[in-house]
Amino acid sequence: MPAPDRSATLSAQIPGRLVRLAVREGDDVEAGSLIAEVERQPARDALGQFQAVLEEAIANRNAARTEAAHEQALVEKGIASRRSLESLRAAQARAEAAVSAASAQVHAARQGLARAAVRAPMAGAIVHLQRREGEVVDGTPATPICDVVDMSALELAATATPSDLVRVRPGQLARVRFQALEGVEVDASVRIVGRSVGANGMGQVWLTLDSGTLQLPLGLLGTASIAVSAPNEAVTVPAVSVRSAGGDRVEVVVCDGSVARVRDVQTGRREDGWVEVTSGLTSGERVAIDEVTGLEDGATVDVAPETP
To answer: N or C: at which end does the chain have fewer Cβ atoms within 10 angstroms?
Structure first.
């Protein structure tokens, strides 16, 4: 499933007929890519009508301004009454308000014309097309056009027994195996742990997948193995000290004096550049932090003096 906020169902923002679909199911799109276009003529017609109203309102306002200015001059000469001037000024205010209203209508019509183009809000893939060219949309989510998903931010929604649920914490590392992909394993980490147990007696855990360059389709069924630890049984080491040993195995290089000793370990939570080691390492042991990838068992290492 897609991660939160990394998928969207796209709909047109104005009603009309779809005159163009620029994508097909399975296409990759960038943020801002054109997805579809709704017929623009009704929006163009509305814009033209509002522009005509605005032009007339501007002309009326200009005339009202001129007439009020002329009357002001007559009042100053004592030829016209102040009451007639106030009447003209009121007419001018109404004309100014009419221009403002017409301007707002033109602005809204221009926005409507721009909304005839439906664009992708994010980079991703078109996973489901729900409309075809020529079909009518009503400008609301009730007539969706397509679904776009950021395929680089996928998650696994898993279930866990209550006894396992209480041991799972956000940030813990996991390995995910998929039923349909024999031999494929994907790194993952716990994002959220459910706070309740359902009627089936199971709770939910959401894991963020790190599939690298592997393109996973949506809807795969998988099983997650989460590295958990009991309270006070884990030590932490810098993340740079932990290296892959193939499959779901990880290891660290322990400094036995000035000699490197490669050791398999089990890891748990990863946070802020540190990794929790739940087994295989005891508190006080020193691990390599530089050039860890190439260190072999028995190699000589330079050990920094301990800080008092």
So the answer is: C
